[in-house]
Amino acid sequence: MGNHDKLIETLSRTARPVTRTPPTLWRVVSWVSCVLPTGALAGWQLRHTFTDWSQPGALTALLAMLLAFIAGTVAIFSAFNLSIAGRKPIRPLWLTLLVMSWLVTNLINASHTPIEPHAAGDGMHCYQFMLAASLPMMVFSVISLRRTRTLYPTRSLALAGCGIAFMTATLLSFCHPVTLEMPDLLMHLAAALTIIAITVLGGRRWVALD
């Protein structure tokens, strides 16, 4: 009994107050306000032109950008919620619908572009921009998830990577022609898959529970 009392006394002296995790919505707002400016600065090194929104097809491009931003926000919200025990991410159906809506919108945009022969490497600039813009976003995401850790590191990081990919697509909309060609879209998708893979593989050891 004496040993138990001594242990309790030791733990009482070393115990520290637990800092309450901010609400998920506030974490998402903070995340977005950090990743968009830093991602824009990182990507700006590769793209120095702005989108001409007066061109035909601008409405479709604007819709795709809006869907990308909403999908990115929903994905990171789900990642943060999943990292806290007892909370559930947003239903996968909603995120799936947003992703499919974004894809269909871009396919419609690409269908308006005349089919022409494409040189090897078309769309590589888009790929490089998205990867460059994603790097600071990955850092912020891993830091945010590390604060709470997670029982499901792969799922949480995959959702975070999805959110990052869509946020980079949102930024790309501001320095990309409003008309989309199929090689561009394919490289956008390739960049998204690469971002998700890097986020999962690079962040797992930092956010998983020991």
TrEMBL record:
Keywords: Membrane, Transmembrane, Transmembrane helix
Keyword presence, Signal: no
Tagged with keyword Cell inner membrane: no
Domain of life: Bacteria
Protein name according to UniProt: DUF1109 domain-containing protein
Transmembrane segments: 25-46, 58-80, 92-115, 127-145, 157-179, 185-203
